[in-house]
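Quick one: structure tokens for this chain, please?
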Amino acid sequence: MKDKTLKRASIEGSFWELISKIIEKIGALIFTIILARFLLPEGFGVYSLTMAISLVFIGFIDYAVDGTLVRYVSDALGKKNRKLARTYFKYVFKKKILFSFISAFLLLILAYPLSVYIFKKPFLFLPLFISGFYIFVLAVESSYSSLFYVFKKIKGKTIKEVIKQFLRILITILVFLFVAKIYYVEGVITGLIITNLIVLIFVFFYVKKFSPFLFSKGKEGELDKKRVMKFFYYLLLGSATGVIFSYVDVLMLGAFLPDIKYIGLFSAAVAFTWGIAGLLSFNSVFLPIFTQVKKNKLEYALNSVLRYSLILTIPVAFGIVALSKYILLVIYGREYTEVAIVLSLMAFLIIEAVNGSFIMTVFSAKERPKFTTKISICSLFLNIVLNLILIKALLNISQLWALVGAAIATLISRYVSLGFLILTMKTKLKIRLIIMNWIKPLMASVMMFFVLFLLNQYIVKEMTLLIGVFEVIAGILVYAFVMLLIRGISKEDFEIFREAL
């Protein structure tokens, strides 16, 4: 009976986590499109660089503290020790407030020197200063939100995500309607502060409703502070690498490029790429599944998941390459079509990001995160070196080519990281990947790309929305036909797809 209850809770949690992720990714994509269209490349560049700097200040602390909170409060509750759970929560939460305050204060006092002396863009000062308040509110809200995972109340997280996405889109639109154009960026960031304050209030009362004992006064339990901080510092190292990796290209472009417009162009291409990758990646749903799968069946489970993921992600990447200019025109507007070559390169990150996340999930499920941490650190250093070399070298040609250099640096470093992940998984976990699962979708996608390329080169004279839809359908049909021809997909796969719908 207990096993059935746990299984039901796991399935329900995975379902709501899936819904939450979909809402989050779609909301983020819509929010980005609205920003890019209203702010135009220059304003979007200011916003993107401001967010990159701000989130580096708080991102790694945010993840490390919240991860520690979830780990130890969950452990205490698993032992039916509410007193100890309350002690862990209060201790870790106080650390979060302290670290968040320090990070926010540092950003406030460093806003001027960063904008004037480091990035040589004085107009960044006010957005950075306002962001100091934003990252503090964001950090506090994320700590309370992490309790949804502790108590397995993922439905509450989904409700929170609906409120958050709706509010930030609504408030941003109101900013563009009623605030002067020169204060658009400052208005948007202020809107984000208001959004997160409202979400914080909702989350606080929602969490307090199902866990009042965490906030009550009483005798404290005994905790091993040294053990807690050791775990925290380990997470801090891994999360710092991930956060810097996420923003290093924008930060380095911001430091080297004189025209902020190109930061906006690059960020638009990156945002679309990660938006699509996010919609196709549900690695968190598979973590409990991989954790429960027996060792001798894990290889089969991973290859099965990767097979369907690759069937989807590889053609999506090639389709974006074939239609990159038209995608930018429709999504962002004519001002962004200049960066089509960057989007074409970044599109291949979708394959690495989605499928690499599944492989990393296997390491987490088998409690081997140290391997992924080491690989991430090495990949980060490679990325920084390549960015330095390629951005500076290609900047001599033009600022657009500097963006191409940043895209190439990111591609190389991430695929090197993926290669080492696969190699480490083979040697340490004894899990091998089926190579044909990668080759067949690649062959079919190349054929699809050439068909679309020939259509645009020799037949389509002027792209319209209707023609674009026709090309997408034609690409899907060509891909499916070739996959059937080379036995990359079967009738059983179509049955599974039909049942899933």
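The CA atoms of residues 317 and 347 lie 5 Å apart.
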